[in-house]
Amino acid sequence: MALSRVNVLLLLGLFLLLCLSKVSSDVEIENEEDDEQLNLPTDKPLIVRDGNRRLMQDIDCGGLCKTRCSAHSRPNVCNRACGTCCVRCKCVPPGTSGNRDLCGSCYTDMTTHANKTKCP
């Protein structure tokens, strides 16, 4: 009886060792494939938001919105709306007004509940 327990434990140990070696080699293969496939720019930091999302360049929404809303009559309201649009669209148009087309349809088509344009 004792001999069969030793054999079972030995087989279990070998099985676990085999599983661990397979997992560690898979990670190395994935890292090699990732390095070969991705041609990412090195001049700007990249952030992964979630596992199912693409890599996105991080932009300074606070600073860009502060510049965008500097001449606005209600800068706090402008900053809040601009921040929301910046986070969602990853873009803030240059200047203090106009140029909304440069950020594309995400920025120009976003509206409030009253169907007014949301993004300044």
UniProtKB/TrEMBL annotation:
InterPro entries: GASA. Keywords: Signal. It holds the Pfam family GASA. It comes from the Eukaryota. Residues 1-25 form the signal peptide. Belongs to the GASA family. This is Snakin-2.
